[in-house]
Amino acid sequence: MKKLIIICVFLSILPVLYSCGFKESVVQPDNQSYLWFTGNTVNASAMVDNNREFKIEPGYYLDSHGQKVKKSGKALYEVKPGKHEVVVKRNAEIIVHRVLMISAGATKEVRVP
Asked: Which of 15, 27, 41, 74 has its CA 20 to 30 A from that of 60?
């Protein structure tokens, strides 16, 4: 009889313990992608997909409309997911020329020597 009571108590507590800590949520990734320029970005300018050339400034990033947005930390450039050609110049000399595939919500690092 004692065993039956213990089994019944255990089976009644089991669903309560099983449900503890379970959290259901929906994660929606960012639809934009970003290029992150690192390294020696002093006097460097970049061009993405033969668009307008812009100066790489660590305290700013350019959004998809070409507007400067102040940001502390990383020098980011907002791009759409997909294939992008990136050219970085310093004193009119090409120092980086890469073709990158960037997925949605990803940030790809472009190291400037």
From this structure: 27
**Single pTM value for the model:** 0.63
User: pLDDT by residue (tens digit) across 51-79?
Assistant: 999 888 766 666 777 777 766 666 678 89
Query: Reduced to 3 DSSP states, what percent helix, strand and coil does the chain have, rounded to the nearest 5?
Result: 15, 45, 40
Range 33-112 classified under CATH 2.60.40: yes
- Helix ranges, the chain (H): 2-19
d(CA 33, CA 75): 13
Q: What are the C-alpha distances in Å from 99 to residues 6, 50, 58, 83, 84? A: 66, 12, 22, 7, 6
Question: How many of the other CB atoms lie within 10 Å of CB of 105?
Answer: 13
pLDDT in tens, 24-57: 777 766 788 999 888 888 889 999 999 999 888 7
DSSP states of 18-49 as a string?
HHTT---------S-EEEEEEE--TTEEEEET
